[in-house]
């Protein structure tokens, strides 16, 4: 009974690149005879069909990065509306999605490099067992090393792209922080202007109060002497009415009531102030 080997491949898509390459080599007796004598040639054929896909994948991601970078750098920092339309949650989400795609690439490419290193070691082991001659070993070794160099280039490109994405990510974060600080400074500036205006208004009220206090004694004295309780007559002698006590009996209690009302209002306001603990002393609160 004659034994024969066969290859079973599960392709992700119909008529994949690997399938086409294998079919093309199977149609050529000389090429398939080399594959039959050296199993590494089949592995190398399948790997070569997909290894260079990293180039197109990295090119697509790089184009997306450049588009987002141009969009972000076009933002006008001094124009609040334009800045908010450019630097927002959507922009950050797109950058994060791009970063997540690029982050997984270096580890996947490193696994491909590890596979190539294993195939190089296996190539040397098969040669030492005299399964094929030195020319075959050298041809396989050169093909694997050439592919390894290309894959290492893809690895360096993916790392550089990830670094550039992190850089633009930090730029966006710094721009948002700086925009927030600028807005806060504007608010503080307006608050300072309002404070200055309040101080000016208080100065005007102070002047008005001082003017009122300046004229108050004269008004009070004029009011007292203008009442009917005093009679200056024709001479220099002033006559005071006998019922002048009524004025004092009404004015003095009313003044006392006004003072007490003011004192109660101030005390009630202090009780409502934050930090007041229902009249308890600090020592009582420390015990609690």
From TrEMBL:
Bilayer disposition of the protein: Multi-pass membrane protein
**What's the name of the protein?**
Mg2+ transporter protein
Keyword list, A-Z = Membrane, Transmembrane, Transmembrane helix
Tagged with keyword Transmembrane helix: yes
Report the GO terms under cellular component. membrane
Is Heme among this UniProt entry's keywords? no
Q: Where in the cell is it found?
A: Membrane
The regions listed as transmembrane in this protein's record are 204-225, 245-266
Q: Which organism is it from?
A: Aureobasidium pullulans
Coiled-coil spans are none
Indicate where this protein is primarily found.
Answer: membrane
């Amino acid at each position: 009974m004659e034994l024969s080997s066969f290859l079973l491949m599960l392709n992700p898509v119909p008529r994949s690149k690997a399938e086409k390459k294998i079919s093309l080599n199977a149609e050529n007796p000389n090429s398939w005879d080399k594959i039959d004598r050296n199993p590494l040639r089949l592995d190398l054929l399948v790997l070569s069909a997909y290894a260079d896909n990293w180039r197109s994948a990295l090119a697509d991601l790089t184009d997306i990065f450049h588009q987002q970078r141009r969009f972000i750098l076009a933002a006008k920092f001094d124009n609040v509306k334009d800045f908010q339309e450019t630097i927002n949650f959507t922009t950050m989400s797109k950058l994060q999605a791009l970063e997540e795609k690029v982050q997984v690439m270096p580890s996947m490419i490193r696994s491909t490099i590890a596979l190539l290193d294993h195939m190089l070691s296996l190539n040397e082991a098969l040669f030492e067992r005299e399964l094929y001659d030195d020319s075959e070993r050298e041809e396989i070794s050169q093909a694997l090393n050439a592919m390894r160099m290309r894959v290492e280039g893809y690895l360096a490109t993916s790392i550089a792209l990830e670094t550039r994405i992190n850089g633009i990510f930090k730029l966006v974060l710094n721009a948002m922080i700086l925009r927030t600080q600028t807005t806060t400074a504007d608010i503080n500036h307006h608050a300072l202007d309002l404070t200055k205006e309040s101080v000016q208004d208080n100065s005007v009220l102070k002047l008005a109060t001082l003017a009122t206090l300046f004229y108050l004694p004269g008004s009070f004295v004029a009011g007292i002497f203008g009442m009917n309780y005093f009679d200056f007559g024709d001479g220099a002698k002033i006559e005071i009415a006998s019922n002048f006590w009524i004025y004092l009996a009404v004015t003095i209690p009313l003044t006392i009531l006004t003072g007490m009302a003011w004192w109660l209002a101030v005390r009630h306001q202090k009780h409502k102030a934050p930090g007041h603990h229902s009249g308890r002393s600090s020592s009582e609160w420390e015990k609690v």
